[in-house]
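Handoff note, outgoing to incoming analyst
You'll be picking up this chain. Sequence as last confirmed:
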Amino acid sequence: MSRAAITVGEAARRAGVTPKAVRLYESRGILPPADRTAAGYRTYTEGDVEVLRFVRRARALGLRLDEIRRIVDLQRQGAQPCTTVIELLDHHLADIERTMRELRALRKDLTRALDAAKSTARRGQDVVICPIIEDPA
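Most recent structure output, in case you need it:
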C-alpha cells in the first residue's frame, strides 16, 4: 500500500491526538517509521490514522503504551489480539477494584482521625503536636 501524503498535523487531527503524540507513538514502535518528503516532513496513511485512533481509545481505557504496542504487534503478525486485550483489561479492572478498596479503607481511617481530632479540640485537651496524626494509645 502506498503511503498517502498525510502530514503529522493532519494525521493527529483526524485521530484526535496531538502531533507530539504521533511522534511519540512512532518512536515507541506503535506506528511504523513514517515516510519522509524531500523536505524531511513525515507522511502518514489512513491506516496509520486508524492505528492512532485505536491508540487513543486504548489509552482512554487505561492501557499503557507498552501494552498497546504488544497488541498492535500481534495484529501486524496476523494474530487476532482480542484475547490479549481481554486479559489486559481484566488485569486493569482488578487493579482498579483493589485501588478502590484501598481508597475506601483510607477514607474510613481519615474520617475516624478527623472525628477524633475534632472531638479532642472541642474538649480542649492538650496534645503534643496534632491529634489527627497522634496515636491515642
